[in-house]
Hints:
By secondary structure, the protein is an alpha+beta fold.
Amino acid sequence: MKNYYTDNPALKFQLSHPVMEKIVALKERQYRDYKQYDDAPENFEDAIDNYNRVLEIVGEISAEVLALNAAEVDNEGPKIVNNEIIYAEGTQKDHEALKNAGLYGMSLPRAYSGLNFAYVPFVMAAEIVSRGDTAFANIWGLQDCAETLHEFASEEIKQEFLPRINQGDTCSMDLTEPDAGSDLQAVQLKATWDENANCWRLNGVKRFITNADADIKLVLARSEEGTADGRGLSYFVYDRKHKAVTIRRIENKLGIKGSPTGELVFNNAPAQLVGERRLGLIKYVMSLMNGARLGVAAQAVGLSEAAYREAHSYALQREQFGKKIVQFPQVYEMIANIRAKTDASRALLYETTRFVDIYKALIFIAQERPLTLDEKNEMKQYQKFADVFTPLLKLFATEYCNQNCYEAIQIFGGSGYMKDYPMERMYRDARITNIYEGTSQLQVIAAIRGVGNGLFLSKIKEYEGVEIDSKLIHLKEKLMIMTAQYLTSVAKFETTSEEYDFHARRMVEMAGYIILGYLLLIDACRCDSFRNSAEIFIAYGQAENSRSAAFIHNFDTGLIEKYR
Ligand SMILES: Cc1cc2nc3c(=O)[nH]c(=O)nc-3n(C[C@H](O)[C@H](O)[C@H](O)COP(=O)(O)OP(=O)(O)OC[C@H]3O[C@@H](n4cnc5c(N)ncnc54)[C@H](O)[C@@H]3O)c2cc1C
């Protein structure tokens, strides 16, 4: 039987990262659930065994159910029948398979019928599911909406909604509107307090909503009359049982066709407030989106992995000019680049997830007892890193996913363009990853803070301090040269100048190539199998950074006018 977890040793490698012991102890609160719940681990080894067991099930379902249904689902898509969305038959089977295996509500505490998984194995499951079917990864992955309810909702709301996730209830995050896309401060959907019914009422339109007909909807709405910015927005939970939302249409789109994207009208829909008024966008949606960005990055890495395997196995068997095409330098270079970019994205995915795991666990611990000063500092520190690493990750993983699928089609030649092979679908599916949950441009706007406040540099210096295998020391030397080049480029601008914004992407990418390079190098020191990718990626990153540095160095400020 095929298994997308056990056939990919890079995943177990990430699970064996030295920081996992700390993460699991925090998540399991020193294993206090052990006596209360049958499935709770007794110690670290037990927890890892448990993660392995569950991920093996995810791996098997992804390979044996999701991947086999994916083409049919892509072809059939969902439809609207009597204001309800009916999934494609394959999607229904996928959903049942994961629900029956207890794979919804993975990160929720056991008290809410969850598995209490740390984010690292949860994100890993998302990567594996996406490798099986990227469209289905949305339907399954939106379970992480439950995380924001868990963090910010009242106990009453948690009791009402969270145990339902494990039963397979689906979720959606309803943020975007026709005039509020990247700029969510412009959201207009109205929330008014209904004194008689003792609830909030939602009225207005949302568009481009994934899982449009979800059982549990998290909705961003304007609760404060007369306001026009983010401070007038609050966050609500709506239950599908009220049947007060009309599905205007399902979008006919380029890719992820199995994932229903809909336009909705809220008609006096009853809803409950989550957390405090006015903090909807500023606090809750920011947290929700950071989690979702991690999910999209995992989706992108899973798809890159799938593209690599498709392209590699095709190149091994296709012959031209009397040779396997994998023997041609231009082809094996493309394959090696896909491998290196996938490995680099994955290294950043799990590094970022480890930051999130630590600070989130401390946030939840702080709800149970006061944190010590050291714990408070640690929480703040990891949160700061997560806040700049998350957009960096989303930018790199999703742009690489697009590049990887593009190159994979190239390796297939004309056959890649045909629906006879899965690459055609994967290529279409990749295109959304750098658009939703904030376009790449918006990720740059978030990540540039890490350039300006020196957070990226402080991590780079930390990585520089890690002991490196003497056989790989030449790679560290390259990364140090790249760091000096990055600092010279950044020093050229005032952070408040238009030039700084103009070159923001170049500077973020320069920092990114160094960070990803170090992560791969450190991985290569722990495991030989990453050596090739580290060598290839750092050579590639060095060339890319030199190009950016030269562009910045030679750039005449007056040129900006010409671009306008
Ligand atoms: C298939 C699909 C599923 C989706 N699912 C959901 C969902 O479940 N829930 C939800 O709420 N939304 C969802 N969305 C919406 C998605 O998040 C938005 O489409 C996305 O955030 C971009 O917004 P927009 O489409 O309005 O583009 P715009 O915001 O109009 O952007 C257009 C262009 O301008 C650029 N741009 C905008 N502002 C800036 C800036 N300040 N600086 C530089 N460039 C800028 C953008 O990068 C982009 O290139 C989905 C969209 C799609 C296509």
